[in-house]
Every structure is written in C-alpha cells, then in structure tokens.
TrEMBL record, chain A:
<protein>
    <submittedName>
        <fullName>Centromere protein N</fullName>
    </submittedName>
</protein>
<keyword id="KW-0539">Nucleus</keyword>
<dbReference type="InterPro" id="IPR007902">
    <property type="entry name" value="Chl4/mis15/CENP-N"/>
</dbReference>
<dbReference type="GO" id="GO:0034080">
    <property type="term" value="P:CENP-A containing chromatin assembly"/>
</dbReference>
<dbReference type="Pfam" id="PF05238">
    <property type="entry name" value="CENP-N"/>
</dbReference>
<comment type="similarity">
    <text>Belongs to the CENP-N/CHL4 family.</text>
</comment>
<keyword id="KW-0137">Centromere</keyword>
<keyword id="KW-0158">Chromosome</keyword>
<dbReference type="InterPro" id="IPR052011">
    <property type="entry name" value="CENP-NAC/CAD_complex"/>
</dbReference>
UniProtKB/TrEMBL annotation, chain B:
<dbReference type="InterPro" id="IPR027417">
    <property type="entry name" value="P-loop_NTPase"/>
</dbReference>
<dbReference type="GO" id="GO:0000939">
    <property type="term" value="C:inner kinetochore"/>
</dbReference>
<protein>
    <recommendedName>
        <fullName>Centromere protein M</fullName>
    </recommendedName>
</protein>
<dbReference type="GO" id="GO:0005634">
    <property type="term" value="C:nucleus"/>
</dbReference>
<dbReference type="Pfam" id="PF11111">
    <property type="entry name" value="CENP-M"/>
</dbReference>
<keyword id="KW-0539">Nucleus</keyword>
<dbReference type="InterPro" id="IPR020987">
    <property type="entry name" value="Centromere_Cenp-M"/>
</dbReference>
<keyword id="KW-0137">Centromere</keyword>
<keyword id="KW-0158">Chromosome</keyword>
Amino acid sequence: MDETVAEYIRRTVLKIPRHEIMEMLTMWEFLSKTQLQTINVHQIKEKISQEVVELCEVITSIVNDNHTYRNKKVWTVYQMTKAAGEETDSFNLADFKYKFKRSLRSALKNVTINFREYEDNAIWIRIAWGTQYTKPNQYKATYVVYHSQTPYVFISSLRSSLPLLCQALVHASSYHDIHEMELRSRCIDSLKDIVFKRYSQTFQTYHPRPLQERNVAPEKVDPRIIQENKREKERIQRVNQEVFGEGLQPKIEFAQYKLETMFKGEPEMDILTEKEPFRCVVKFSSPHLLEALKSLAPAGMADAPLSPLLTCIPQKARNYFKIKERKGILSASCLGP
Amino acid sequence: CISYKPFSLPEQLVGTDESQQQQLAEAILKEKKTFKINIHVATSLPLPAERDHIRPRIDLIAFMINMQSKHSLRNVEASLSHMDANFFLGKVCFLITGVGRMNHCSVEMNAVRKLGNLYCSPVLFCELDSEGIRVATAQRLLRMLQICAGHMPGVSALFFSSLMKSSIDE
C-alpha cells in the first residue's frame, strides 16, 4: 500500500472521536465485519490507527497481488482425488472456509488467512505464514486458487508447510487425497486452460483469446523470385495445424526432461555403454514455449512433425517428464514423478 | 561499342531460413544490372520434379547455412549429394550466416571450412541481418553470377577454384 495512503488512514483515525471510529470504518466498506470486530476501540488511539492501517495493508495486498502477481509467480497444479465410491457433495463456501481455517490454525497459530471469491467460481486464498514465535510474514504469502467445481488447486510461492496446506485443503473440500501434477508455469490462466479443457479434441481455450494473426501477410511477390518448395511448405503448415490447433497456445515457460537412458554412441566408446543409465536433464525454456515450438518447423529450424515428446505437453497436462529405457528402445514412458 | 542483350540468368538459393532467403533475393533484384535475373528459392535439393520442364538452366547455386542451426548444415549436406558434379566447377558457393553470435553457434567453423574444401567452392561469411552486408553480398553474388553465365569475356567460373588455393598447399 502506498505510504501516503497509509499515513492518511492513520491520521484520519487519530483525528476523529473514538465513538465515531467504528461508524466511519463501516462506512468505508473496505474492511469486512470479522475484521472490524478484531479492532479494539478501547485502547489508545495510536494503537487503533496502527491496527487499522495493518488490516488495510493486508486487504490491498490481496487485491494487488491478484492482479500483479497473477502472472509473476510460478504456479504448480495439484489434483485432489476422492476415495473409491465417495460421492461428490454440493459445495458450501462458508463450510469450506471454516474447515480450512480450523485445520490450518489447529496446527499453526501464527497464520493469516484471507479469502476472496471471483465470478468464475475461483476462490483465492492468501496465507501468510508465521512460526511459533514470530508474526506472519506478509511479504512472502502463499496463494492458493481453488475452483470449487473441479478437483484442481493452483498453488504459488510455497516454501515449506506444504503438508499442512494440503491437509487443510483436502479436509475443507471433502476430498480424500491430493497429489502434485508435473505441471508448472507463471501464467495461471494458461494452466487453467490446460487442465480444464484437457479432454476436448479441438483445443478450445477457457479464456476467449483473439485469433492468432497469421504472419503471412498478402505480400507483393516478385515474379522473378520462384519458390520451389511450395508444396512442402504447405505440408508443414498443415501438419503444424493438426498438431497445435488454430488458436494461441497456453503459455508455459519450461519443459524439462529427465533422461535415465543408456548412452548410445560409437561401439569404441566402451566406457560409457555400461549397465548404468546415462543421466542428464534437458530443459527447454522460452517466454512462450509452446508458441516457439509451433514456429520451429515453419521457420525451417526443425522438421515437421515435431517429436511427440514436445507436442504432447497440453494433452498430457505436464511439462516435467522422466524418460526411461524401454526394452532398448528409447521412448517416453511418462512414469510418475 | 558493346551492347548488352537482356539475358535471363537463373540463380538458386538453397537454405532452410525462408525469410533470410527472401530478403537476400530481394536485395539481389534491387541491384542495378543490364540483364534479367530469376531467383529460385528452395529449402533443399533435389528440386521437385514436376517443375523440371519449365525450369531454365541454373547458372549459380548458393547454399545458405546458419551457424546457429545444425539442422541447416545437415540439410545442405544432404542436398549436396544430389547435385551434378559439373556444378562444382565454380558454380556453387556457400553463404554462412550467424557467425556474429559465437555463443549461439552450434555448427563448428571447421565443419564449414571442410565443406568448402571438399566441394572446391568459396565460403562467404555474411551476417544477412545487416542491410549493408546484405547489399554487399548481393553485389558479390551478382558478379559471380555474371561470370558463371559466361557474361564476362575472358573470365570463366573455373577461376573461382584457383582463387581458393592457398599458396601453402603447393
């Protein structure tokens, strides 16, 4: 929150008479009822104004973070599962919030939890973690986004306390278990695109995106320049379209492949062709990886079609892979993490 | 008094980077000349057979290799094996781009020099992203084209290979 705004709030609270503070704060309609209840108007005015400023800061940081950090932090996707035979109960928001808070607070006293609901059924939970002896650190808050109609949870900035958080989520949403999907990106909307529409054949995006401009503008082609491989270029475009679809690709920044395969080299290099697999990690990174892959073949930097290891990312809803040998033939057996 | 008859001189650019080829082709066509020129742009050889009957005799072939793309080198190597040996009497040259950013090169210098030696053809390094170099390269290619097509009295394409021999070799 802006320093001048904080200062303004502080002075305003100090100026007005004690018995009018609650009325004014209620009129502002900025702090919630529960938050207003936490303010003790019988303490010295300095303390009251301090508390009000702190509460306001927390609220503004939630609002700011949603918009600015939406695409700055790395989000990881988690999926919750029900036990076999369990029924899906209808979702109750108040119930969820209550259970979540209770579960977290029972394990950790010093924690700030804030909820915010959005129109698309998304619940944003902001958690500031403290320890047994320290107050919650508001600057390193974790964000959790849960769409109540789905089993998916998106979590960012989690350093520790993952088991605590998972337990609280599962308990509050009446699921049985939760596991991490091998899917990470900075763009939470793209992650949602991938997991929510994973079974649709033509790749439709959840968010209406503008149709991608084709970069082949109708140029004045000099008749003295003759393109010999028009057919091949058209084939590449067609294959690309089949694999990647029409619209803009979801935005991810990395794809990582952990190879645990045998080294394949010249027969003379006996040393390396041993029983031990040759371990290495191949990481692709780009501001917009899938769009970059889509443009490789048309730009003449790769043959079309591309390796399925690269093109399967949206369908498989993962961008972290482990590749093992399979009976001497190299293939991506996408075994668990 | 020498008068130039307008001739059609076909030139071939072979490479994987279409936009670079297009830019170079346009630069070549912009240059002032007294003869007609056609430029055939291709991604690889052999050329599609269905156009054989309408394609004129090619006078000069320029293979484009991007040092930052191993794929472009492999593509050129594969194309070379499809060529008629007659072309290697001075009618082939290699255009190498991407040397300016050494950190991003995945093709080795040696590989490119070996290619030039193996096929007795000049290797021209040019950063085609820069307009000045593009124009200079276009002018060089035009000059070579004139010689290859026999437009320069007293100068034949065979001279190109003799220019490549270093005095140390003898």
